[in-house]
Structures are given as structure tokens and as C-alpha cells.
Amino acid sequence: MRRPFALLLLLLLIAAPVSCGKPGSPPTKGPQPSSLPSYQVAAGPPVTGSPTLDAARGRGHLVVGAKEDQPYLGQKDPASGVYSGFDIEIAKMVAADLGFGPGQIQFKTIASANRETALQNGQVDYYVGTYTINDNRKKLVGFAGPYFVAGQGLLVRKSNNSIKGPQDLAGKTVCSASGSTPYQRIQKQYPQAKLVGYDTYSACVDNLVSGQVDAVTTDNAILQGYAAKVPDELKIAGQPFSTEPYGIGTPHNDAVLRGALDDALAHHEQNGDWKKAYDATLGLSGVPAPTPPPIQRY
Ligand code: GLU
Q1: Cα atoms found within 13 Å of the Cα of residue 157, Cβ hemisphere only
Q2: How many whole angstroms from 111 Cα to the centroid of ligand 1?
Q3: Residue 119 maps to which CATH number?
């Protein structure tokens, strides 16, 4: 079967009324649109001097890169095509300050390995999808933010008690998304692990549930979402072992757009939208809202 995780989710959704309220179990609900904030679309003079924004205004909408299979962060409803999650809310709140309402954003799924190319080729205007800011990537793209800080972790089957940290991965099969910082860290620092790369983390999780891999590694914020969806099958092992500051990826040369996105993040952190958005999305995976990290303008 190609998508056991999807099937498992479907079965859990059908069984949801029975398992609801089971003491100690994390919430199995998805983001609830009714509790999401709506963002005031800027009416003032538009930001000028950004080639990316000029092009978006010309076409009448923004094109924003995102993930579509990361619970509570960036998820696409297969039936409606609607994207939801914390990253999607970040994309919408900053769009509002640039003068674009939610109906003027077209989301486009871009895998971890393809983000720099998508920004360099103008396939997307900006990218919001668990995208770690680092110096290597800064040579190719720009980053606004950070707007959140995650850390690399490990997801294992509930029955597994032998993996408690990356040091236990020697000889074990561990899956991550190609081109991601967690993939690169295992490759460099834990060469005895048998590393497998897929386009998406959901493909890794499918393989974990079916027993083909021993662990999935990526940011704890992503893993918490998968674990919260199937708490009887999967668990997080050990503590985070890296720092992953999430930024909004921008085309490399567009410093005006980057500055406007930094201003927009600061605005929505101050007016409470950031926390409301977190509570209605990523907060549902069971971790209370942290204080947003300081924005590093450069
Ligand atoms: N934050 C990490 C990265 O940017 C892992 C998550 C992802 O692949 O999106 O590579």
C-alpha cells in the first residue's frame, strides 16, 4: 500500500468521537478555522522598490511557497485544496501588510530540496514552510525573521525503546527529507546511521509506521504534529539536538521585500496576531506558545 499513514489518519478520523477526551492523549483535532485571526489588509501607500511585489501587483496575486503535508504547520486539504497551519497563517498575516488579502494568495507546494531554486527562478514570491535560516542558504536566498525556533528531533514507533538520541542511530535506518538541515546533520555528524532521503516527511512517516525505517528525523515542531495525529503508534524520542530558526525565504536580491516582511512580522507579533495564530494551529499539537524570537534584520 502506498499511503498507510493517510489510511491510518482516515481510520482515526472515523474513530475520533470514541477516542476524544481520552485522558492524557494529545488533541487529534486539526486547525480550527473559526478561531483563527483575520488580518487587516494595509490600506496605506504600497511598499515601493521591490521587483517581487511589483510583479505580484501586476498579476493581481501573490504566489507563496509552502508545505502541504506537515500537520499544524502547512497542510493542504486534498478535497478543497485549501492550505492551513501556522506557516500558512504567517504567510497570510505578512501578505495583509503588503496589501494582499487571503483571496489574493496562491499557495504552491515546494519540497525542502527545491526551495532555493523556486525562489531563484521566481516560481514563488516568498516561501513559508519550516525553512531554517543559515549562512549557506543566505548565499542563495534572503530570509525575513526568524518567526519561530525549532530543534531537530527523532520520531520512532511507540514500541521502540532503543533510540533515545542521535547517538543511538548507528546501524539504524533513519529517514529525512533530502536537502533539509536535519538530513545534512545526520549525514555529517552521524555517518554510521543508514540515512534514507525522501521528498517529504510524510513519506518518511509512512515508512516508519509500516516498519521500513526505524526513525524519522526533522524539526520537533514537525514531528510533534505527526505524533499528535497518531499518538498510539508514534512518539518523539529524546530531546532536540539543534537550533532551527524559521525564516520567510525571499528572492536573494530583493532587500526591500525582506525588510517589509520583517516589519510585518514585528507588527503581528506586537498586536497579538502571532500568538492567536499559534494557539489555533501549532499549539494544537500540545506545546504552549513560546515568545517569538527577536527578528534579525541584516
Ligand atoms: N527546518 C529544516 C530545514 O529547513 C527542516 C524542515 C524542512 O525540511 O522544511 O531544512
Answers
A1: 13
A2: 10
A3: 3.40.190.10
